[in-house]
Amino acid sequence: MRYIPEEVSAKLASHEMAYDAVKSALIAASDSATIFPVVLAHGSEPTNSYAIKSSAVAELAGLKVGSYWPGNDALGIPRHNSIILLFDQSCGRIRAAVEAGKLNAYRTAASNAVAANALARSDAQTLAVFGAGHQAEYEVRALARIRDLQRVLVVTRNPEKGTQFVSSLNEEGIAAELMEAEEACRVAEIIITVTPANAPLFDAAWVQPGTHVASMGSDSKGKQELPPQLFDRARLFCDLPAQSRQIGEFQHARDAAELTAIGEVLSGLKTGRSGDDDITVFDSSGLSVQDLYVAQTILDLLDA
Q: One GO cellular component from the entry (predicted)?
């Protein structure tokens, strides 16, 4: 068994490699991949949770264990951590174990970037981001790599974190500022939510025609970031419809709501944005097949 520690996978991770791997994984998810039901569990303390996601494609099979320990904030370390296990399909033993704390952050942000590149208007330059935590930083940078962002509007309930986040982005040459939710939604052309919220973060009426909206934080039952009223005005996309209805943002959508897998858009089987006034919503509940592809990419880089 090959063991790739966090220090190694983190050094090899990048927005570019994650984007390519995740794009291929999302296409596979709507085509050849078998994706198994998510197992949600918790540690000795119920507030400490983890999820087991598993899948198989022709060339890869395995699983990811992703943990969320909110108390890690007090320790100065990320709340999220992950490890990916790839099976040797010839005998069922573990072929590789890849620690993926930082890699998972790149992978999650890549899903957002891939979807935004396919669904957001080509001239979209103003981004509103709800959340100022660890993952929000990766989301903004992944989008900035593929789109010419002129303004980043940060909406957060934690002014201290928000100020630090804005300062960090400005230092990198990404023009950012703090803004209240309503004003940010009304001027944004792309809105992303990266929070652990259990209730809508804004009013559906604030979202203007032509906006692309992405929920990145809803990945278990009860979580919610977007107002369901928005779904009636929008075209709805997600990484996997069945999973999104179970644990993603679209658990709050009407049963009759039409959900399109983003992989079908990427492969040309379905239409994405059909006009400049479309509101598009993308829900990323997170797929194991994405983890398999990025883990294999790490192994390939090590063998190159």
A: cytoplasm
